[in-house]
């Protein structure tokens, strides 16, 4: 997706670099912004929270481009970006979970928990596979797709729909990745 919007992202990233902002600063600002969005979500202001989450998603595309344009992408920068992405996602689900618990909507509270579990597992499986020198990016609902499902559902005040889709498809994606790693491990051990 970044390659598709490179002509838009790179000029903005260059501008932020000229302002003297560091890529990791943008990464942390994204987490802070998502935390603010999660607060609004937790209080039931889904549209406001969704707009903030949408803006922070756009901001999240800039840190890597800023680092690349500076000629200084680092392993630590990539690590921080990945960790804050997980925190951002979980803080948003935390806001939704709080909201549903306050509404005594236990079904949606459970669905939100399952969505958070699936989201974390999709990322964890890829990271764990990478630690074993395997790469798995398969699946129908990676992080970008989860964002594309969740943010509009918040903006249009139908969070139950986005959360339900993520609860189902993120866990399906986790299973797809487990099977992909199993296939890779089996192939590797056959050689």
Mind telling me the CATH class?
A: Mainly Alpha
Q: Identify the CATH architecture.
A: Up-down Bundle
Hey, roughly how much beta strand do the residues contain? under 5%
Q: How would you sum up the major sheet?
A: none
Number of helices: 8
Radius of gyration using CA atoms only: 18 Å
Say how many strands there are. Answer: 0
Shape: flat
Structural class: mainly alpha
How many structural domains are formed by the residues? Answer: 1
Mean pLDDT over the full residue set: 93
* Share of residues in helices: over 70%
The low-confidence parts are: none
**Alpha carbon gap, first and last residue:** 35 Å
Q: CATH-wise, what's the superfamily?
A: CDP-alcohol phosphotransferase transmembrane (TM) domain
Present the secondary structure layout:
Elements: H1 6-18, H2 23-42, H3 46-60, H4 62-70, H5 75-102, H6 106-131, H7 143-155, H8 159-190
Helix pairs in contact: 1-4, 2-3, 2-4, 2-5, 3-7, 5-6, 6-8, 7-8
């Amino acid at each position: 997706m970044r390659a598709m919007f490179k002509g838009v992202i790179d000029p903005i990233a260059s501008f932020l670099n000229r302002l003297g902002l560091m890529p990791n600063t943008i990464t942390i600002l994204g987490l802070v912004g998502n935390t603010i969005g999660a607060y609004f979500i937790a209080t039931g202001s889904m549209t406001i929270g969704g707009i903030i989450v949408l803006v922070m998603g756009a901001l999240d595309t800039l840190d890597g481009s800023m680092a690349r344009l500076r000629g200084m992408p680092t392993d630590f920068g990539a690590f921080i970006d990945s960790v804050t992405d997980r925190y951002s996602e979980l803080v948003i689900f935390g806001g939704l979970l709080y909201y549903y618990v306050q509404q005594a909507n236990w079904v949606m509270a459970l669905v939100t928990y399952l969505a958070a579990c699936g989201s974390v597992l999709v990322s964890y499986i890829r990271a764990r596979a990478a630690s074993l020198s395997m790469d798995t990016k398969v699946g129908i609902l990676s992080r970008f797709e989860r964002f594309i499902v969740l943010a509009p559902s918040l903006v249009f005040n139908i969070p139950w729909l986005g959360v339900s889709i993520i609860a189902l498809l993120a866990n399906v994606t986790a299973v797809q990745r487990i099977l992909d790693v199993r296939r890779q491990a089996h192939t590797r051990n056959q050689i």
